[in-house]
Design a protein that fits this description.
Strand content: 35-45%
Distance between the termini: 33 Å
Number of domains: 1
Number of helices: 0
Number of strands: 11
Helix content: under 10%
Oligomer: single chain
Length: 135
């Protein structure tokens, strides 16, 4: 799938070729609920990561510009960060919010592109049931 979307102020987004990517993410066999999965193809001129939130069952689906549009085709660096849902608040009545701790504590090394050591080639046919099984 090739995407190119016009942005405001006469700027044009760099066209990208994406492919569907979905799978599961676990650490020591436990699902990484509320972690955000990142795929980043640094060969792409777009310089946009694809992301997806890991659900309670460990499943995730990636999107770059729209939910579920996949990841950029090519070699991608992979990492995860904890990203719990923020509760809705009423304007003018905001209260301080402390995020709950993750159910599964992921080692820091997996939480940055530079240190995760994870990468995957995304083919134009996409990746279905891709497993991120960390130890």
């Amino acid at each position: 799938m090739t995407l190119g979307i016009l942005a405001g102020c006469g700027e044009k987004l760099v066209p990208i070729k994406t492919a569907k990517v979905s799978g599961t993410a676990t650490f020591n066999g436990k699902t990484l609920e509320n972690y955000k999965v990142y795929f980043y193809c640094d060969q792409s001129d777009a310089k946009e990561p694809s992301t997806g939130i890991v659900k309670a069952d460990g499943a995730f689906s990636l999107g770059v510009r729209t939910a579920g549009d996949g990841a950029i085709v090519g070699s991608n660096k992979v990492w995860l960060t904890y990203d719990p849902p923020v509760p809705e608040q009423t304007a003018g009545l905001e209260v301080a919010w402390n995020p709950p701790p993750p159910k599964v504590k992921l080692p820091e090394k997996y939480m940055t592109m530079e240190t995760s050591g994870l990468s995957v080639d995304v083919p134009s046919s996409g990746l279905v049931d891709y497993k991120i099984d960390l130890k």
